[in-house]
# Entry
Amino acid sequence: MNVVITGASRGIGFETVKALAKAGVLKIIGISRNYKQLCQLKDLCSQLSMTEFIPIPYDFQQIIVSESKLVGLVKQHMNHIDILINNAGTLVNRPYDQISADEINRLFTVNYITPALLIKNLLPLLKAGQAHIVNITSIGGYQGSMKFKGLSHYSASKAALASLTECLAEEYKNDKMVFNALALGAVQTEMLAEAFPNYKASLTSEQMGEFIANFAMNGKAFFNGKILPISTTTP
# Structure
């Protein structure tokens, strides 16, 4: 099984890779800006199983001008993809009238444009693997959920990714690819600490990583085009 996951160097992405390695996935490409932490993850995977972990350092804020470069790096190591997990994300916690245009651009580039372009450019490999594409969104971008001051654009970018998931499931339903989104609630990560400094989540990144890994491997048999809220608490 071939897996590609973004945002693999820390938090939920890091733990998801560990869970996939423990499950015996043969090859995983992990993409993140932090090459040092990706290399640490590679060493850890080699201790857990026979999984081949391939680190690819990449800054997702450059996706618009260098999308072909990233896709070329993936294609060097895989001729098909069974699972794509779009986990990379960024957050800005700032009142709506104080956030800058550059910050809005960064939020939508990393949280929406990156997974959108990655899916588009990897379509031949995804079709070849009849892949399960799992987009990691946020409960804040889930329609009807509680919203929070300072996270308007973050939530909007995640809502856009959720909507894209539904659209792609319909557009490619005859290609045997499956698209789902997991709208995560509070998980104890560095990103949560940025948004809610004094809040302690009941779920750890390790627990959520294990859940995402299991869903990525098995969920396509039960869901397609679904936005699934994964939340025990709302800060």
